[in-house]
Amino acid sequence: MIRRFFTLLSAVLGPSRRRPRKVPRGMRCVIILSLIGCAIGCTHAEHVARVSVAGRSVDFRGAESVGRMRMLVPGEDDFSMRQYRALWDRGPDLGEQLVVLSARGSGLFGEEYQLRVFDRRGRMLREGIVTTWRGQFPYCLVEINTSCKVLPDDYKGRWILAVGFVDQKRPFDPSGPIDLRGAHAPEDAAAPVDVEPVVWGEDYYGNKFKHGVGMLLDCSEIRSRLAERALSSHIYRSVGTREDDNR
Known about the structure:
4-stranded antiparallel sheet, 3 helices
């Protein structure tokens, strides 16, 4: 980008063997200022924001690791301080937002993760809690839509954010279809993923939810979809009904 800028600038300022007409000095100033503005704008567009989470700096990037630990932020050796990230695809209007999960430790009903959502300017938009079974790790972002009675009314019948978790002991092949049915997936499923909904902070601390980990196990009518552009072409199987499968 910088090289292209200086190439254009030299074309305006430098000598030319074929110059059919002289460019007025005022016009040359306008062209130069336009090129400078374009360079600044393009550089800003390519800038990758960094956010601060629990005293650690996290780049505005999607999941980069491989295998069942694809969401793991590289460079953290302390297991208890590990962080996980992915880009949540909010559609053409909102674009992608950074989701960072930080381990909170073991709760009464499983492992709790603090989830934070950031925009490209590094501003935190929202935070919540997601609970999973012990021995599982965040694998992907999912959106679910259900009217299951265990959910509060304002979570029903709309697409809400959830996180797909993988069990560290169960066989897992990331190259196979992602099976969002988790515990209901067949034993020979290539990539079984347990899906847990995100409980936003105001609802978590207000005790709006009556259930913790595994609250969707008894819900049969669940529509689901992967919520990352990086996985947009990946084959998956839904949590409940299969009407949203992209097989």
